[in-house]
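S.,

As promised, the 2-deoxy-2-amino glucitol-6-phosphate run. Input:
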Amino acid sequence: MCGVVGYVGKEQAAPILLDGLAKLEYRGYDSAGVAVFGDSIKVQKCEGRLKVLHKKIKGGSSMSGTMGIGHTRWATHGEPSDANSHPHTSAEENVAVVHNGIIENYLELKDFLKNHGCVFTSDTDTEVIAHLIDHYHDHDPLKTLIKVMNKLEGSYALGIMFSENPGELYAVRKDSPLIVGLSKGGNFIASDIPAVLPHTRDVYLLNDKEIVRLTADAVKIFNTDEEPIKKDVYHVEWDVSSAEKGGYEHFMFKEIMEQPKAVRETVRPRVKRGKIVPDEFQMSPEDVKNIDKIHIIACGSAYHAGVVGKYLIEKMARIPVEVDLASEFLYRSPMITNRTLMLVISQSGETLDTLRALREAKRLGGRVLSVVNVVGSSIARESDDIIYTWAGPEIAVATTKAYSTQLAVIYLLAEYFAVQKGIKNAEQTAAFLDELAKIPAKIEQIIKNTENIQFLASQFAAAKDVFFLGRGIDYAVALEGSLKLKEISYVHSEAYAAGELKHGTISLIEKGTPVVALATQDELFDKIMSNIREVKARGAVVLAVVPENQPTAEQFADHVLYVPKTIPELTPSLAVIPLQLFGYYMAAERGCDIDKPRNLAKSVTVE
Ligand code: AGP
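Predicted complex:
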């Protein structure tokens, strides 16, 4: 996944491009570059973080021109290097291109172009696009781009400049996100809204295969039939600071601290006079009874939220639930009918595995409800129904507040389905919602006292392997705790259903092995305590996460982290918080780059 920016207007472009790229570094940060159109197209690009490029072009002052494109890269084709960084150009810089996505047929196109005399200087798929545009260019950019789009297979968000067309910036997208920023001082393209927020709150959210021509004072959008498209302006409500660190050392810590607000703002608009109103997603009791299965598809932490969803929807609403990794769903001939409700969960709404699984599910006849954090994202726009999580922009690669708001939506849906099926009455729902309304304050209680967690993380900082155990819904949370730890601290970790450990993996437990045991379910408490005894007998050092009403855990575990008591269904929202903090502090102890972990990107828009 990469970050794309572009600008055309009255100001010098290079400094604007650098500022925009700084807001997109979370999308990829192994190399960066800009192309600025002064009296001709000039390119400056290099391997390394954005600050290397910034220094190379003296903050942009060494490049003059009021139009340009910029790029920050997360390598897919070709290792990070000066030559592989974007922008890429055709011969004599006739065409300059920046690209986010993957061209799946780039090798055959590259052969075709080589046979037509093209000389390549990089290993990237993007350079193929630049030469292809130049190859087909017949002095009409719109026609050329439509022709090229018909040749490309894969995903792309492109910023393009033609040396013949000064003052005209072009953009097109398919599967990868791209927005257009509108302002009196000029117009912008960007992979994500924060890049344009310092200049404008008014944006166009581009759909697939829309082609944009931007000049300093006009933006025109066309479809692939060359017909102009009229679009509504989306006015961004959230403020620039919410996309900034706000005084915290890391975005991740800021976003952990924002969870009470994020959960509150996600739940509140969906509860009206004691009833659950999931926005426009309405299903009559007959509709709900007609659902033969709910099929959840997602990746990473969103998948872990989906596993919680399986436990809860089956327990509360008695509807069969399957939960699938999106990348697996695509290739296992899933059994979907028009009575299947697909639940697609994604923070970014751009994860390509999930987007492609969504399309496959729709092709098979499923109705798609998506739970997404980014308004107007590709997954949102291709769903039949959407319930947005109102977590606000999440910048840290490791998700926290978005995951917590996904849980909140899952609680609401499970209760909604139970009501529609006549399993829950108004009084029971009122009690459920009353407890749900207390969750933000209970999260607040945990994040206000992080010292003990920080201390424990320092004790385990040198660990080579950490195991997370849980039973039932605690197992689903253990999955998330394990991912948080490994993705930002680079410590190997596994989450295990506690009852399964004895069937093999317990052989890995040895003296000093850290084990984090979740024991929030009273009905399973004794069983998990016996699992703790099992691993302690083999030398493990156990950190238990238990509700405040379970002090007996101290007789079994070496360390106990208490979370406020709540009803069993809502414990994931509380049990996950110490695990997020544990991972954060372990990573801090180990000097890791917490917001931008190695090899990772915030939204994975490649398969
Ligand atoms: C979570 O901390 C990870 N960054 C990653 O697993 C993420 O959850 C996954 O890539 C899915 O992203 P999405 O929610 O934007 O679709």
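The longest helix spans residues 426-447. The domain at 3-242 is CATH 3.60.20.10 (Glutamine Phosphoribosylpyrophosphate, subunit 1, domain 1).

- D.
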